[in-house]
Design brief:
Blueprint: H1 2-13, H2 15-38, E1 41-63, E2 76-78, E3 83-84, E4 90-98, E5 105-119, E6 122-138, E7 142-150, H3 151-165, E8 170-182, E9 187-199, E10 202-205, E11 210-225, H4 229-255, H5 258-269, E12 274-276, E13 286-289, H6 293-303, E14 307-310, E15 315-320, E16 323-327, H7 331-337
Parallel strand pairs: 12-14, 13-16
Antiparallel strand pairs: 1-2, 1-4, 1-11, 3-10, 4-7, 5-6, 5-8, 8-9, 9-10, 14-15, 15-16
């Protein structure tokens, strides 16, 4: 209760200052909310225009020509993880390049097989066989070209090279793709490679041979966006709350009795010095009015007495012999009751 009384007393004593302060801040909040509502924000955004994608990849296929318990003769195998020389001695590469279809695009495709002899990390032999080299202009958005190789003959050639080097170093084979393009807006190059492994009777591409590019033009422009309702709404709500507090402060000031509040605060602070009771009202007693309850408590402390509270007449008093020190909010009523 003491905390509420202290707060109410503070509001009552500082009512004018608080009303002016809250009213000014509330006006600023409402003005700020109106400004945010009437002023849209401008934001710069980036847009990607004229987006074009070019991609190229190499697929594989082989027709079964040898006897096998795995496949039927004449069966066509596509993009397998491994092929076998006795079953499929010939392998076809399919270079598939996709470009924008709404225009003419010039495409150059080059596919090579490179053999490198290495001792450690240093090469001692290098050769390159061009499997495909062509340039064409397409308007339907796609260029597909095939090229076949004889893997059996390739394996024999590698075996002769290994025999000549008598185990010094090793040979590695790579399939390399190089594609250049020129559209109405862009030009560039796609490159990809992967090891071509021949191990015993098996052979395979050890990885994907594919590359892709997406080209675009970045354009920036300013756009207006509506104001954020949470921002101007919060400011407006805060302004209304502040004006509501102004009304509450004015009402509190009108309804509050500062003296009564101070008495309750003092009563709470010095409650251990105050006891309930009645004190005599004989005419021979000398009654001394004290200005506040806190001053009366000081009298009690100085005279080593207790403060007596009579709830019937709402009077606090310290009785010291023939002298009665008293305090009451309703001083006239107390004097009438005491026949003073």
């Amino acid at each position: 209760m003491a905390i509420e009384d202290r707060l109410e007393l503070f509001v009552t004593e500082q009512a004018r200052l608080l009303v002016v302060l809250f009213a000014v801040v509330g006006l600023f909040c409402l003005a700020g909310a109106g400004y945010l509502f009437l002023t849209p924000t401008t934001q710069t955004i980036s847009e990607e225009r004229n987006v074009q994608t070019i991609d190229s990849s190499v697929g594989t296929s082989a027709v079964v020509t040898g006897n096998s318990t795995l496949y039927e003769r004449g069966e066509r195998l596509e993009n397998r993880s491994a092929y076998f020389v006795p079953v499929t001695p010939n392998l076809s590469f399919h270079v598939d390049t996709k470009v924008p279809s709404n225009q003419e695009v010039t495409v150059s495709q080059r596919l090579t097989m490179e053999v490198v002899g290495l001792r450690g990390d240093e090469p001692f032999y290098q050769s390159e066989e061009v499997l495909l080299d062509e340039q064409r202009t397409v308007s339907d958005g796609r260029l597909v070209t095939d090229r076949s190789i004889n893997v059996s003959a390739m394996r024999q050639a590698l075996q002769r090279k290994r025999a000549e080097t008598r185990g010094v170093g090793h040979f590695r084979t790579f399939l390399e793709l190089n594609v250049t393009y020129r559209t109405d807006s862009y030009e560039g190059t796609l490159t990809a490679s992967a090891p071509f492994i021949i191990s015993g009777q098996a052979y395979y591409l050890d990885g994907a041979v594919a590359d892709s590019q997406t080209r675009s033009e970045t354009v920036q422009r300013d756009v207006q966006r509506p104001s954020d309702p949470t921002k101007y709404g919060s400011l407006a709500a805060l302004g209304l709350v502040l004006f509501g507090l102004c009304g509450l402060i004015i009402r509190t000031e009108a309804d509050s009795d500062p003296d009564a509040l101070r008495t309750r605060i003092s009563r709470s602070r010095h409650d251990e010095w105050i006891s309930r009771g009645e004190f005599p009202t004989e005419s021979e007693k000398q009654y001394i009015s004290i200005r506040s309850l806190e001053d009366l408590v000081d009298v009690a402390i100085d005279t080593n007495r207790r403060v007596i509270y009579d709830p019937n007449i709402e009077v606090y008093a310290v009785i010291d012999g023939s002298e009665i020190y008293y305090y009451s909010l309703e001083d006239l009523h107390a004097r009438a009751w005491l026949n003073l």
